[in-house]
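Question (not urgent): is this output format expected?
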Amino acid sequence: MSAPLLEASALSRHFAVKSGAFGAKQLLKAVDGIDLRLNAGETLGLAGESGCGKSTVARLLMGLMAPSTGDIRFRGRKLADMGRSETFTFRKDVQMVFQDPFSSLNPRMRVGDIIGEPLTIHGLASGTQKREIVVNLMQKVGLAQEHFSRYPHEFSGGQRQRIGIARALAVSPKLIIADEPVSALDLSIQAQIINLLQELKKELSLSFLFIAHDLSVVRHMSDRIAIMYLGKIVEAGDREAVFSHQLHPYTEALLSAVPQIRPEQRKKQIILQGDLPSPLTPPSGCPFHTRCPYATPPLCTEVPPSLEESEPGHLSACHLSKKLYR
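Got this back:
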C-alpha cells in the first residue's frame, strides 16, 4: 500500500480554560489522541455532533494551529519539521473551504481579486494571465464572467460558497479540507454544491477531507468515514461498511435518525438520553457511556476503549462491539 497523502497520529489539541475571573484553569480536550489517514484521490468524511472537535481537527491538519501532542504528516513529511519553503508549498497543496460563506470572504474585495489573491501570494500569475485563470475558475464553478468586478454582498449564499471553492482551486491543490461547506445553505443549494465538489474531484483528481454533521451528505461524498465523539474517533471504515454494519452504538443512533424514503429501509429511531458531556469534564471510561443504551458497568464506566480493528478495515472503540454487532 502506498503512503497516505495526509496522516495524523495520536493527534490532540488541549486548551486551558478559566472559569470566571478568579476560577481555576481547566483543560479542555477539544481533540484527544486521534489517528487519521487520507489517501491520494479519496474523500474521507468526518462526522459527528456539533462540538465534538471536527473543526479543530480541520485547523490542525491545515497547520492553522499547533497540536498539543501528536504528529501530522503530509506525503510522509512531518509538518513540525518543515522549513519555510516546505511550509509555503504545503500551504499551496492543501486548501480549505470554510463553513460560513458570508464571513469567509473579504467584503471589501471584488470577487476577481478574492479568487486571484492566492495566485499573487504564490507568485503563479499576474496581469492578463491572472485574469484569464480567474475567469476560467469562475466558469468552472458556475459563476459568470460579469461577476468578476462585483462584491461578495451582491451574491447569494450558494454563489459565495462557489467563490470560496474557486479561491481554493486557484493554486491547483492536492487536498481540499471542506469544513461543513453546505451546512449554512438551503437544501436545494446544498445539492448543487455537493454535485459541484464531486465533479471537481473527478476532473481535477482531488482528495477531500469532508467534514459534516449530516450523515446523508457524508455518505454521498465519502469513500471512507470516521465518526467523532467528544474529541475521539469512535468508528472508522469504508462508507458502505459503516452504513450497513455499524460497530458502535453512537453510530447506530446517528444512522437511526437519517430520513429514509422507502418504508422498508427505515429504522427505529434511537433517542439518546442526556446532552453531550462537556469536554472540560469528560466521563470516565468510555466517553459515550453516559448516553449509551447498552453501557455495562464497570467495564464501560471505568475502562476507556481503544480504537481497534473489529473487522478488516473497519475500526471501532467499543467494549461491546463484537457482542452487539455480530
